[in-house]
Automatic annotation (TrEMBL):
Record's GO cellular component terms: methionine adenosyltransferase complex
Gene Ontology MF: a single term: methionine adenosyltransferase regulator activity
Matches recorded under Pfam families: RmlD_sub_bind (PF04321)
InterPro entries (UniProt xref): dTDP_dehydrorham_reduct, NAD(P)-bd_dom_sf, RmlD-like-bd
Compositional bias of kind Polar residues: 46-62
Name of protein: RmlD-like substrate binding domain-containing protein
Comp. bias regions, Basic and acidic residues: 33-43
SUPFAM superfamilies: NAD(P)-binding Rossmann-fold domains (SSF51735)
Chain ranges of the RmlD-like substrate binding domain: 71-178
A GO biological process held by the record: S-adenosylmethionine biosynthetic process
Location of the region described as Disordered in the Swiss-Prot/TrEMBL record: 33-62
Amino acid sequence: MDWYINNPNWWGDVTGALLPHPRMLMMPGGLESHFEGSEEEKPASFGSSNTRMVVPSSKNTSSQQKHPFMFLIYGRTGWIGGLLGKLCEKQGIPYEYGKGRLEDRSSLLANLQNVKPTHVINAAGVTGRPNVDWCESHKTETIRTNVAGTLTMADVCREHGILMINYATGCIFEYNATHPEGSGIGFKEEASPISLALSIPKLKLWVCMPISSDLSNPRNFITKISRYNKVVNIPNSMTILDELLPISIEMAKRNLKGIWNFTNPGVQAKLVVAPRSNNEIDASKLKTEFPELLSIKESLMKYVFEPNKKT
Ligand SMILES: NC(=O)c1ccc[n+]([C@@H]2O[C@H](COP(=O)([O-])OP(=O)(O)OC[C@H]3O[C@@H](n4cnc5c(N)ncnc54)[C@H](OP(=O)(O)O)[C@@H]3O)[C@@H](O)[C@H]2O)c1
């Protein structure tokens, strides 16, 4: 046993023996050709040499060999991250929760090299407690994690040719002259001001006012507004997690990239006072990719109200 541990390179590259479709190795570019995109998107390789040993990682080893996907999910203790883990379990997708911290590059590198994911699903971020106002008064901590940390993770994924799926807030627009309130003209993905983030290939999902069927969860938008003293009647885009999180997993499987407005089509009125929290974003790109996507009203009925109906 000691000898095998001390001579890990003795057998050379045996990756092909463990692949369900070893033909991939014989194709030009080998495994690397499996990654889509430009040269700089391709993996630098996990190892320091071209001899890649398959080192058993902490768990799920047998399912990794059989399954084409291995998701590394950041946000284990969070609302969206917790739901994503449950979805992977339900769908039989091998996954692990991230162990690094977003702003600590070396911890992310070590985590990726250990788990060897096909995708990094990033639902981690500082969201503020008791509410998002905390982020306004703690700008340094917020920028360190949500801006520097997210970009660090995106860069580490880029280096390894791994697609990162990032859940971010879509509350970045305000109604204006070209997008007047109530006009039905929503902000399209191209209106996004985040050009720096666009230069790193990844899948960025703009989430708005997330709602789930779990009405006991204080993060649930319906639960939140039911506790506000003051609400306003302004149309807003929203994300029904029960319908959209499975779609985001499908987007990962399809290796989709770029910025996507990640809401149900249409708007729902009444909500928060801060102007940038109230806006309509255009979900037509998502609807074109997933024609079965329900409108906000239909989705609320199907995924939130019906399951919670008292019989
Ligand atoms: N909930 C919303 O209203 C909403 C709306 C739009 C978009 N989003 C976005 O969706 C993402 C997930 O939201 P959520 O509601 O699930 O958030 P959440 O419940 O507050 O969970 C955040 C998660 O991020 C982790 N985290 C925080 N700082 C980290 C760091 N520096 N390194 C690694 N992990 C870190 C937390 O882990 P620890 O506990 O270990 O710190 C936690 O697991 C966030 O980026 C948020 O901006 C949320």
